[in-house]
Every structure is written in structure tokens, then in C-alpha cells.
Amino acid sequence: MAILKIYKYGADILGKKTKKINFNLLEKKLPKIIDDMTQTCLVMDGVGLAGPQVGLDLSIAILTIPQKQEGKYKRYVLINPEITHKKGSILSQEGCLSFPGLVVEVERATEVKVQYLNEKGLPVELNAKGFLAIVLQHEIDHLQGITFIDHLSSDKKQKALDEIKQLSKQW
Ligand code: CO
């Protein structure tokens, strides 16, 4: 396993819609990509990581959701995920490994239904609410070239950009 370089705010790849994965074509390469992304996410203390954040123009994201028992996490591997239903609205405090130090309040749906392929290439339909639903929306946004600051009103986004300018001196 390897720790991958994380692309931060300003990298072009974070603003681009990713390519869908042809599972059969990429099947042999996927286990290493998935292992490396998982390891990178855990080491960086993240709960999710999307392809573009590690320089991959591919529709893949992994989630490492902490469980009640300390040190345990549940991993989700999402290949070509799509949100097919959204319900409700909640304000959520979010950070992102591509924006170290920045926390902003983003409006999200409270419940989502997501369709994707898992690491075996099998189709999955997941109904999620609460924290899992929020992380899913954040990561699937990345695959569309959307980051959390894109959900802010223009004045709040400007404030966030000013903060990023300061924070990025430490990156
Ligand atoms: Co992010």
C-alpha cells in the first residue's frame, strides 16, 4: 500500500467531472487503487476520499465511516456512484482533505439513495441518512468536479476563499 499525494484547492482536477469506470477494463488495477485510497484516507484522518483528490480522473470514492467501537470503521467503495433520490435538508459542518483547516457550513439532504458498483463490480443500492448521507453527498460531488465551497452563497464563498488564501500558506 502507498500513501497518495492529495491534490489541494487550486488543482485543476478538483474542478473536473470524472470519467466513468469500465469495471472489466480496470478490474486488475482497482484493488491497488482502492487499498491506496483507503490507506491515504485513514492516515489523513479523513472519512472520505474521491478519485480527483488523489489525481485520478475516475469515478471512484471511498468512505471510512467511524463505528461506535473505537478504532473501527466501515469502508464503502463507490464506483460510478449516482444519487437517485434526495430528501430533506440539514446544515452540516464540513471539512475536506483538499482544503486542510477549512470548515464551512453546507446545506445537504438528510437522506439519500445512491446506486453504485462495489469493489467486486456488483451493483448496490444504498439508502443512507445522517452522517453517512452527508459524506456520500460530499464525495459524490467531488466526482462531478464540485467541492463543498461551491454550495456557499457568493458572500460566504468569498469569505471562505479569503480564509483559504491564509490557510494555504501552511499547505
Ligand atoms: Co472533500
Task: Describe the 3D structure.
This protein has 171 residues and is α+β, with helices and mostly antiparallel strands. Helix content is 27%, strand content 29%. The protein is built from four helices and seven strands, in the order ααβββββββαα. The strands form two sheets. A five-stranded antiparallel β-sheet has the order 1-2-3-6-7, sandwiched between helices. The protein has a two-stranded antiparallel sheet with strand order 4-5. It is globular, with a radius of gyration of 16 Å. The mean pLDDT is 97. Cobalt (II) ion binds next to helix 3.
**Total beta strand runs:** 7
Query: What pattern of helices and strands is seen along the backbone?
Result: HHEEEEEEEHH
Please state how the strands of the largest beta sheet are arranged side by side. Answer: 1-2-3-6-7
N-end to C-end Cα span? 24 Å
Write down the overall mean pLDDT. 97
CA gyration radius, whole angstroms: 16 Å
DSSP helix fraction: 25-40%
Helix/strand structural class:
alpha+beta
pLDDT < 50 runs, ≥5 residues: none
Biggest sheet, in brief? 5 strands, antiparallel
What is the count of helical runs? 4
Small molecules bound: cobalt (II) ion
- Percent strand: 25-35%
Large-scale geometry? globular
